[in-house]
Amino acid sequence: MSRTLPWLALILSAALAGCAGTPTAAPQTGSATAPITSSGHKPTGPRAAVMPSGPLTELAVATPSGGPDVATLAAPTDLWERIRRGFAMPDLDTDLVRDREQWYASRPDYIQRMTERSSKYLFHIVEELERRNMPSELALLPYIESAFNPNAVSSARAAGMWQFMPATGESFDLKQNMFRDDRRDVLASTRAALDYLQQLHKRFGDWHLALAAYNWGQGNVNRAITRNQREGKATTYLDLNMPTETRYYVPKLQAVKNIVATPQRFNTALPLIGNHPFFDSVPIERDIDVAVVARLSDVDERDFRALNPSLNKPVIMSAGTPHILLPWDNAAVFQQRLATHTGPLASWTAWTAPSTMSPAAAAARLDMSEAELRHVNNIPPRMLVRKGATLLVHRNGRNNADVPEHVADNAQLLLQPEVILKRTTVRARKGENVMTLARRYGVSASSVAEWNNISINSPLKAGQSLALMLPPRKAKHVARATTKPAGKAGTKVAKRTTTKQKAKPTATRNKVAAR
Fold it and tell me: What region holds the LysM domain (predicted)?
C-alpha cells in the first residue's frame, strides 16, 4: 500500500503537467525507450502515461495560434448582432427579394426613420422571440407591416405595429373600446402577434407559409395549397398562386433581413441600438391622468404616448390598464414620486347616459361645455348620445370614483343621428288633451306643452291650433292630411285613397322592405 500511493501521485502529476505544458508526442508502440516506472515495470496499454523529466509546471490556459476562430459566449452589446445570431429561417433568393433590397437601399432616410422608431420596442420583441424559441427574423416583421409605427391604421382598418384587424384582434383578446385599443399596445399586441404566428407555423409547418397566412389569411393559404395538391403541383410559398401583396410579403422581410445582416453591402448605416431594455412596466393601482404621469416621471407626454399608444384619453383607467410603460430610468423616478404624492391623481371619470339626449343636454347635466364634451369623446356634429353610452367626464361631487373594470373593458360610445325637426301646425280633435295629441303624433306631452307654452293638463278645444316640432317627412305627411280637398272630385279622390283595395299594395311593399 505504501508503494502504491506514490505511484498514483506521480501518475496524476504527469497528467496535469501534460495538460499545462506543450503537448508531447506519445511513444510509438514497441519502442525500446518506453519509460520505466518507479516500481521497475513498464506501463502497458495505449493510455500509458509519459513521465516528466523535469519539475512540474503551473497550470495555464493554452492560447490557440492560427486555426479556426472560436465562437464567443459573451452577450453582444449591439442588439442588431443579437438579432443576427438568432436568424433561423431558410433564405429566399429570388428576383422579388433583389427588387425589394434595391427599394429599401435606395431610401436611406426611410430606413433611418423606421429603425430609430423601432429602438423603443425591438429589445422586448427579441426577448419574447428567444423565450419562445422563435426565429429572430420575426422581430423585423413590424418593419414590413407598419414601419414600426404603433399608431398606423390601414385602409382595411388594421391597426398597430403588428397590423391586427378588429376581428382578429378580438380573437386574441385585444380589447377595443372607447378608452383604449390594445391592437396598438406594445406588450399586448406583441404577445398576440407571436401567439398567432406560432399557431400558423404549427398548422402549416413552414415559416414562409405561416407568414403568408398572417398577411393573406390562413383560410386563403389553405385553399391555395389544396388547389395545388389537386393539380399535382408543389405547395411551397413560391409555388402558390397568391395576390401581389402576399407574393411580395416574404421577399420584403428577406430584403430587410439581408440589409440587417450586412448593412455595409447596401451602403446602409443602422442606428446603434443597445442590447438592453428601453422601457420598464410599472403597475398603477388608481386611475391617473396622463399629465400627472408625465409630470411625476419627467417624461414628455408625446414620448409617454409613444410607449403607450393604446391609450387615447387624458386619463388611464387602472381597472383596464393595470400597467404602463416608462423609459427605464424614468420608471424608478415615477414610482418614488408617486409614493409620496399628495392630492388627486385623476380629474376624469366615466359616466353612463341614462337616456338618449343631445350633447348639449348631457354637457349641461355634467357641468361641462358642449365643445369640451364633444372634443374629449370625439362626438361628431348632428349626433345624439344614446341611452347606455359611456362618456368621459370631469370629476365633481357627483362623479368622483375610479372607473370599474366592466366599464373600463367594455365602454362604448353609442350615438345616433340627430333628427332635424320642422315646425308644424296641427289641430286638436274633439275631446283631445295634450297627452292624447302628443301620443297621436309620437312626441312627448312635455314637449308639446313646452312648444306651445301651456300646461300638460291644459284642456284643448276642437280645432285648436298647436305647434309641433316634427321630422320633415312626418311634417310633410301631416301638412297633406290637414289640407282640405277642393270640391266634390277632391272628396271622391280622398275617399278612394282610404279604401282597402288601395291599402293592400302599401302593406305588400312594407313586407318586401322588411325582408
Answer: 424-468
DSSP count for the chain of H helices, then E strands: 22, 10
Q: How many CB atoms lie within 10 A of CB 52?
A: 17
Q: What is the pTM of this model?
A: 0.71
The mean pLDDT value for 235-240 works out to 96
pLDDT of residue 209: 98
Closest Cα to residue 169, out of 179, 152, 157, 155? Answer: 157
Q: Which of 101, 137, 145, 432 is catalytic?
A: 145
Residue 55's CB is within 10 A of a number of other CB atoms, namely: 6
Residue 372 has pLDDT above 70, yes or no: yes
Of residues 484 and 166, more confidently modeled: 166
C-alpha distances (whole Å) from 77 to each of 50, 89, 508 are 46, 23, 77
Q: What is the dihedral of CA 181, 183, 187, 190, to 10 degrees?
A: 180
Q: Are 351 and 391 in contact (CB under 8 A)?
A: yes
Q: How many CA atoms lie within 13 A of 507 on its CB side?
A: 6
Q: What is the DSSP string of 164-198?
A: B-HHHHHHTT--BSSSBBTTS-HHHHHHHHHHHHH
Question: Quick check: is 285 catalytic?
Answer: no
